[in-house]
Amino acid sequence: MNATQQEEKEYLEVIKEKLTLAVRRVDDAVKQFSDELREKKRYIHEHQSGMDDADMVAAGQSINRMAFTGEAAVTRKRKLLKLGQSPYFGRLDFAPQGQAAVPVYIGIYSFLDEQQRRNLIYDWRAPISSLFYDFELGEASYVTPGGTIRGAIELKRQYKIRDGRLEFMLDSAVNIHDDVLQQELAKSSDDKMKTIVATIQRDQNAVIRNEDATVMVIQGVAGSGKTSIALHRIAFLLYRYRETIAAKDILIISPNKVFADYISNVLPELGEEHIPELGMEELAADLLESHYTFQTFFEQVQALLEHHDAAFIERIRFKSSFEFLSKLNQFLLHIENTYFQWADLRVGRTVVPVAFLQQKFRTYHRVPLLKRFALVANDVRAYVRDAAGRKLTNGEKNTIGDALPRLFKLHSVLDLYRDFYRWIGRPELLKLDQRLHLEYADVFALIYLRIRLEGLTAYDQVKHLLVDEMQDYTPVQYAVLSRLFPCRKTILGDVSQTVNPYSASSAEAIERVFPQADVVRLLRSYRSTLEITAFAQRITPNPDILPLERHGPEPAVVRYGNQDEELQAIQELIQGFQTSGSHSLGIICKTLAQAKRAYQVLQAPTVHLLTDESTTFKEGVIITTAHLAKGLEFDEVIVPFASARTFKTEVDKSMLYVACTRAMHRLTLTYSGELTGFLSA
Ligand SMILES: Nc1ncnc2c1ncn2[C@@H]1O[C@H](COP(=O)(O)OP(=O)(O)OP(=O)(O)O)[C@@H](O)[C@H]1O
Known about the structure:
Layout: H1 5-47, H2 53-85, E1 90-96, E2 102-107, E3 111-113, E4 118-123, H3 130-134, E5 138-144, E6 147-162, E7 165-171, H4 178-186, H5 202-208, E8 215-220, H6 226-240, E9 250-254, H7 257-262, H8 266-269, E10 277-279, H9 280-287, E11 293-294, H10 297-306, H11 310-319, H12 322-338, E12 345-347, E13 350-352, H13 354-363, H14 369-388, H15 394-406, H16 413-423, E14 437-438, H17 440-454, E15 464-467, H18 475-484, E16 488-493, H19 507-513, E17 518-522, E18 524-525, H20 530-539, E19 546-547, E20 556-560, H21 563-578, E21 584-589, H22 592-602, E22 607-609, E23 620-625, H23 626-629, E24 634-639, H24 650-660, E25 663-672
Adenosine-5'-triphosphate (ATP) binds at residues 181, 184-185, 194, 196, 199-201, 204, 220, 222-228, 494, 497, 526-527, 631, 633, 661.
Domain UvrD-like helicase ATP-binding: 199-529
Protein name: DNA 3'-5' helicase
EC number: 5.6.2.4
């Protein structure tokens, strides 16, 4: 069936026709729903006075049901229209053992021929579609909930269909033909992150479809598709577990609002709803219930970039260590053992002995300390009731409830946190100003103590947690995430792209917090040309990286007399970019102060400054810092001020690496004075 290009073209027309008919049917259904809805509302309005409460509830429910069905129809229409533009991207002719081959067309959504009750297009997430990503011609198998289906792939074909027209088709003997991938990667960037369904690679597919891992850690080199894969994985899980997980049950912890905006199109493109997203700082503010103000991660990194403060670095280093987490845990035990001022409790004529109280507190050792008081109070009430042989008065009950917390010497979690530093003999490691403004490194330690003492359950409804930029979070932060989100997790990042080497976590470190984690390493890099990848390797070498064979111009490193001349040259580069046909140019500086300075000089309607307060990603020319550019990509990147004066510390080196790895096709570094030493390798 459909062997030649001509036959495929004709078949495409047939499918488009069926899609058009399906759209028409949905339109008719929507019209019918809205007529019925209007009619129902009118009926209720007119008969309101004669209806009792039960009638009203039933009518309300029926309206809600109709509205819901109507919404579902609108969603379906949107999907059908999208399919009309590009119904499928792949086909395989699969012959299950002992049966003849049938063509399986694979697209972004499934499409059923309602008359024939036959799938004309399979969703890329359907079990059978995994054949397309996992196998070449010949023997193949796929797993269904009912078991493994074995057989052979007799034909494998890829299509590029745009605006309903077949641009090309390609029969492939190898797994996801390189030509199509190359074409995709050579394209100019879109304004937002895009889907990669047509060219998902085998190792990526394994991550996307992994159903077993309770914690999946993806450690991948720059541009290896970690973020793309994580989002496709979410789409897959939403499809696979559609009865039990909805988009609202998933939470993405994202580094900043611009990144959240940048990735926001992917799931809707894949036909899923928008996923809730939260920054670490928002989470912190929520958990501290606005009792404290605190430095943000961005401010911490900027402080490190702007001046070298050995004591500040020492505080960050310590609080990012495993030792810190285990010391906090030891301190919690210490509190239990020493913060009680035990005394017999007298209620009326009954004396509740210390031994009874201690034994009860021990019984509940799994319950967070401050939650135990209520449980022990109940036991004490029972004890007193039995001893007195009568029911207790409300006054007596309250006395018991009030008396127990008084046994414990706790004023506030912050006092306790202060005590901790005295206990470890390092009071100098806590720096709190008069206004109790916390340093970023203290925020999650304080939250951790709160969770351990009070047991917060605010996020129990989340069923899957996605954490991007995992290298930027410390063991204490992971301990908080682990207790707060007992659900499955996907955690991804790249330790080479840390913006704060004093607090970076590698996959190995994260495995210590989540020993049950499945760790995958992705070494193939898709974003940048070979030349750019090789250049970035000079800054932070990784001998295991596998760059894709795609070429472009050599990165340029250009010296100017001074910074004004540099900016003038960048102005000319911007003009060149504007006529180049590329979509995005990132001018990536080390600090926000430098970015602001560059913006002052380069200001124009198409030039945007991205700061830590920005909320949206913009197309065109963006001036920002390496920290904020993390996770983003640009057709072309310019790194100004790449001098030895600007890039000299470990933090600076990370920034330079992040900045250079944002470039897809072209990279230019400008400097004046002496060139940074990080490029000498
Ligand atoms: N299988 C694929 N097919 C087509 N494009 C891909 C594929 N995998 C990755 N890419 C592209 O590679 C680029 C990098 O992907 P992504 O941003 O997800 O990587 P990352 O590992 O999160 O990067 P980084 O850590 O450097 O921010 C994107 O343009 C993405 O579309």
